[in-house]
Write the structure tokens for this entry.
Amino acid sequence: MAEVTNELLYEVLKPIQREVSLLREGQAQAREEMIARRSHVHAIQQDVNNIYGILARHDARLDRIERRLDLVGTH
């Protein structure tokens, strides 16, 4: 059986340390991408909300125009 020395442990742990470092870098990149996507989705939600607001105003305006022109029956 081979003798376990500090040098041997060090040689085994060096590649593991490099791999852990690479994993951390990958995790940081994935986190940044997720934050960017979350911001993009938030911007899209804001755009959709703005469109709904515009449609609601146009709908209300169209209702007033139809009533003024007596195009809709009053029940």
Q: What stands out?
A: The radius of gyration is 32 Å. Residues 7-68 form one domain.
